Request: fold
Amino acid sequence: MAYDVRTQPGGFALAQARRRFRLAWLGSGLFLTCFVAVLALSFTDRLLAILVSALLLVATASLRPAAERYLDDQLHWAEGGAAERAVGETLDELRREGWYLLHDVEALGGGNVDHIAAGPGGVFLIETKLRSYRNEQLGKAKRQAKLLHDELGDCWVTPIICLHRRQGNPFEHKDVWIVPHAHLLDWLRNQHNKTVPFETLARFAERL
Reply:
């Protein structure tokens, strides 16, 4: 199925956040239902109500670490999706300058790529993070850039990690450029790599 040009940046991460939010509400509702059931039971069988209450307390204590991790993950997905959307909206400003932009691409090696930007300065694969990154994320960005290079042919694809909430100047780390959000557009405009024809990019999008 061809890439949908209406795809919004951050859609995958925000969808994950919404799914986790719904499951969290479902779990809360289930717990509340059990609490109401115990309360009703206390009027008919106090001893059984005490036993069930004790079991609920043990279960709550046991599940609390997992629940906290789940909620942390939900927050991470929500913040990550918002960052991707903000970076994508910034990148879309380049369309007026003849750049070609793809957001939320899910076809490269079975993974998800936040943004692909191609313009006068070359072709760039951009992953968005909030404030920091891990070494394995550098490796992932390079692998995805290599896959995109293989798809497009004779052009260098520069891997970038864009840090949404970090200040400072762009720098290179293990062949991946680390670019704060505030510097992203100027940095891209100042690059001078070989680009690819629009037709090549369009054919690539049709294969996604």
